[in-house]
Amino acid sequence: MIKIVNRLLILVIIIGGIWFLAENWNSDEEIPVNEPTAEEMAEEANEEESAEDIEDLKNEIVENIPDYTETEGNEENASPEEEEPTASPEPTPAPEPATPTPQPTPEPPAETEPVLVVPNVQTDVRVYLYEWEIDLTDRVLPAGTVTFEVINSGRFTHAFAIEGVGDFGKVLPGARETFVVDLSPGIYQVLSPREVDLHYDMNENIVVEEQ
After folding, report:
1. What is the CA radius of gyration of the chain?
2. C-alpha distance across the termini of the chain, in Å
C-alpha cells in the first residue's frame, strides 16, 4: 500500500514538472536564475537529509509489515488442530430404593363381654287386708317393678309396709290404694306395722326371683 502511494506521488511530481516546463518553454521571458545563498543551501541540505530519513523510515515500516497474503495462505494450508477428545460424562448412579417403613399392625379390638340387658319386668299383685291377715294373689314375683294394689276388706284401719323397703301408710276400711316399688331378688316380709296388727302377727312373706 505504501509503495503505491509513493509511486502516485512521484507520478504527480513528474506530471507537474512537465506542465511547468511546457508553460515556461512557450514564454519568451527568461526565467531569472537566482543563485542560492549559503543559508538556502544549508536548508536544502537539511531537507534532503530529512527526505532521506523519511525514506529510510518508510522502508523500515514496509519491511516490518507482515505479508498478509502469505499469512492467509499459511493459515489455509495449516492442518486443523486435532480436537481433544471430550471426556464422556460419568453415569449417574441410580438412587437406591427407599426402604419402606414398617407400619404397625393394628391390634384387633378387645373383645368385650356382652352386657346382658334385663328387661324391666312389671308385675301387678293384689293385696287384701283384713283383721290380722294378709292375702296376696302371688307370693313369688320376678325382680323388677311391682305394682301393689292394696284393698282393706276389714272393719278396722290397717297399714301396708314391706320390710327393708318402706312403710306406705294407712289404708282405711273399704279403701283401695296403689303402691309401686322396684324389688331386687330376695325374700321380703309384707306386713301391717300398726301395733295391734303386729301383736297378732299380721304379715306375709314374698319371694322375688332373678330373671
Report:
1. 77
2. 136
* Residue range 54-79: mean pLDDT, rounded: 59
Q: Where in the chain is the domain with CATH 2.60.40.420?
A: 122-209
- The SS3 of residue 179 is strand
Q: Identify the pLDDT of residue 129.
A: 94
Mean pLDDT of the chain: 77
User: Do 124 and 192 touch, CB atoms closer than 8 A?
Assistant: no
**Domain 122-209 bears CATH identifier 3.30.70.1560:** no
Q: Which amino acid is at 149?
A: E
Look-up of cell digits 511546457:
22
d(CA 190, CA 208): 12
Could you give the maximum distance between any two Cα atoms of the chain, in Å? 203
Residues whose CB is less than 8 angstroms from the CB of residue 20 and which lie 6 or more positions away in sequence, other chains included? none
Name the CA dihedral angle for 196, 197, 200, 206, rounded to a multiple of 10 degrees. -160
